[in-house]
Design brief:
alpha/beta; single chain; 6 strands
Length: about 200
């Protein structure tokens, strides 16, 4: 088989793992094992949610324009625990608002991690997100805002963990830009990076 056929087969296998939720389950089991190894309860009670817009260099596939970040491409929606372990990730077009992409992520996450009590977000997550999480899902949302007077990079309490985690997970050149045609495959590549990181920590 040629290179193109081999790539298509590999992409199909990755997409199948992601679509069926198997990769989410593998990552979740490794998160629990790593948390227990560090002396914590297996399931987190506090989660930090954030989003990252990146350029998309795939020849085909959905993409959009994030006017705030001035990026044409995709948006990655992340949820991590208090030590930066990736709990869940979704990928949308970049024009999707943080709160609109974050809500389905959180709805899926609370089935994986039912003991979550608090979600920490930034000011981009507005009342629609906050009310849905608190009223429908019964979890508390804590908004950590950037100070109005701040310029440049600011280390925000608790939330710096998700920014650190995003930086570690996307440090490879492969993940700095989204090269995948399918957004399910784009999410799966990030989960694979998380699985590799967790396996290295556990072993």
């Amino acid at each position: 088989a040629g290179d193109a056929a081999e790539y298509a087969d590999a992409a199909g296998a990755v997409g199948g793992l992601s679509d069926g939720g198997l990769l989410d389950q593998i990552n979740h089991l490794l998160v629990m094992a790593d948390r227990e190894k560090s002396g914590r309860e297996a399931s987190p009670t506090l989660v930090i949610v954030d989003a990252q817009s990146v350029k998309c260099d795939a020849p085909q596939g959905d993409r959009g324009y994030d006017a705030g970040k001035k990026v044409t491409g995709r948006k990655r929606h992340f949820a991590v625990d208090c030590q930066g372990r990736l709990l869940a990730v979704d990928v949308t077009s970049a024009d999707v608002q943080d709160q609109d992409g974050g809500l389905p992520l959180v709805q899926r996450l609370v089935t994986l991690c039912p003991f979550i009590k608090i979600l920490v977000v930034d000011g981009g997550y507005k009342n629609h997100f906050i009310n849905a999480v608190q009223d429908t899902l019964g979890r508390l949302v804590e908004v950590v805002k950037r100070p109005d007077f701040a310029k440049g990079f600011v280390l925000l309490p608790i939330r710096w963990r998700v920014e650190q985690s995003i930086g570690v997970l996307t440090i490879s050149r492969r993940l700095k830009i989204d090269y995948e045609t399918l957004m399910t495959v784009a999410a799966a590549t990030i989960l694979f990076a998380s699985v590799s990181r967790l396996l290295a920590s556990i072993t």
